[in-house]
Amino acid sequence: MNIAFIPARGGSKSIPLKNIKEINGKPLIYWTIKAAQNAKCINKIIIATDSNEIKETVLSFKFDKVEVYDREAVNAQDTSSTESVMVEYLEKTKLNNDDKFILIQATSPLLKTEDIDNMFNEFIKSDADSAFSAVREKQFHWIETSNGVEPINYDYKNRPRRQEFKGILAENGACYINSVGNILKDKCRLSGKIMAYELPSYTSYEIDEPQDWIIIENLLKAFS
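Given the sequence above, the corresponding structure tokens read:
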């Protein structure tokens, strides 16, 4: 069994009820549910929410893989972690330890069906225990220190040409894969040997602030 899990909390201070706010003609959460619905690797999609409005919106899509899980209020606070609702659901549900758990973030509507299937297939072929989607950043990164700043991913005295610079991988927050057993044991979305699956750079955007909405809506029009 391969389960997609999409948390969708009702509370959002920056953008009220953002998970069902319309973007590119559809509620935000529609885009990730649609991507999961059409993914061959996914058997069931769980939407974990504390909001009746979100629940009604999700069920109105009439996707046949979708089920709504009523998450507990204690794990739907501003300070609640995604892991808390993942573990809550898994502790209440009888699943096999080797079932695959695919965490998908509703705030990453640029994730496509082929991204999910390709990432899952690469994960199964690998010897990794868990995986995350990533984008490659080719900026030169520095860290603040007591003596000023220091580079962390290049030698500024031998500045590489962009074409020759591998850059670094950054989580884009869109998709994670692990086994049920690992998540219950480690209480974390990632564990053991971790694999990164690279997605196009434009998928680095997540909707957290109002300005993100403008950027992602235009990207959706271009790439959906």
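The first strand starts at residue 2 and ends at 8. Try to locate this feature in the token string yourself.
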